[in-house]
């Protein structure tokens, strides 16, 4: 799988969060997932989407470290290298 | 549909097929029964395949579900019915009899449910129906392992259900009372005398409850236990 660009990762994550009910206008790198009303079920589904799109498997420990949208983008970018 | 070669499982497979679901008839050792179930479904105009696998083996659920997806497509309904009993007083149960009942009745239910929920939450639709028992919510001397496993199936079903409810996935338990099957022959019990309906149940009566919970009509029913027991649990 070719290394994805940051823009590609950001788009997949943003679209997923919107699907989960987050307000697109409130999504930014610094936005906290809690504030976006993204919970553990959403993160479990996001992990599946990330795995399907980028071949990156996130453990439950990895997921627990993700606090902001930027954290999610960065960990996927790092692991997809 | 696990444990579908005979008894309640076979009746459920037939009822689901009659409602139009393509059915994977899972069995451990009852190949003749599973084949008969498939033949009965096909001759009634339904679609079914038999798939062997001992669901108490932790390696089996993923293989089993892979075979179901390959042969029938995405999973919309999972019925965890495979179960066994190994009776004895709690004070004399062997570790082996304790563990194998828990592994099949509870462990397999957990692993299969976990495996299907991943795709069901993505599909925004799914039905998981776990076959519990009236034994568990109420006592029956000589069945401590079985009762523990079935009470745990109810607790597991409720908790998993609330976790995924907002994704359109329902998880419920069905708790049969004393149903006429090979499995209930020789159960150490005087429960039969206490059934308000004054009769044992038929596998088809349990199957109807499962078919209802699998249907669109039950879309707002989740995290509950439907007793099919002639009033025994009252």
Brief synopsis:
Chain A is mainly α and 81 residues long. Chain A has four helices and no strands. The mean pLDDT of chain A is 94.
Structural notes for this entry:
The complex is a heterodimer of chains A (81) and B (234). Chain A has 81 residues and is an all-alpha fold. Helices cover 57% and strands 0% of the residues of chain A. Chain A has a single domain, classed as ACP-like (Non-ribosomal Peptide Synthetase Peptidyl Carrier Protein, Chain A). In chain A, helix 1 (6-19) packs across helix 4. Chain A is globular. In chain A, 22% of the residues are buried. With 234 residues, chain B is α/β, with parallel strands linked by helices. Chain B has a single domain, classed as Rossmann fold (3-Layer(aba) Sandwich), CATH 3.40.50.720. Chain B contains 6 helices and 6 strands, in the order H-E-H-E-H-E-H-E-H-E-H-E. Chain B has helices at residues 7-18, 31-43, 60-72, 95-123, 144-164, 203-214; strands spanning 23-27, 48-52, 77-80, 126-131, 169-176, 225-228. The relative contact order of chain B is 0.15. The mean pLDDT of chain B is 95. The chains are: A mainly alpha (81), B alpha/beta (234).
Protein traits:
heterodimer, A: 81 residues, mainly alpha, Non-ribosomal Peptide Synthetase Peptidyl Carrier Protein, Chain A, 57% helix, B: 234 residues, Rossmann fold, 4-stranded parallel sheet, two-stranded parallel sheet, globular
Mean pLDDT of chain A: 94
CATH topology description of chain A: Non-ribosomal Peptide Synthetase Peptidyl Carrier Protein, Chain A
- Look up the CATH topology of chain B: Rossmann fold
**Largest sheet features of chain B:** 4 strands, parallel
Structural class of chain A comes to mainly alpha
Provide the gyration radius of chain B in Å. Answer: 17 Å
Outline the low-pLDDT stretches of chain A: none
The CATH C-level name of chain A is Mainly Alpha
Shape descriptor of chain B reads globular
**Number of domains as seen in the coordinates of chain B:** 1
Which architecture of chain B per CATH? 3-Layer(aba) Sandwich
CATH 4th-level superfamily of chain B: NAD(P)-binding Rossmann-like Domain
| Number of separate domains of chain A | 1
Q: Tell me the distance between the termini of chain A.
A: 10 Å
> Which superfamily, in CATH terms, is the homologous superfamily of chain A?
ACP-like
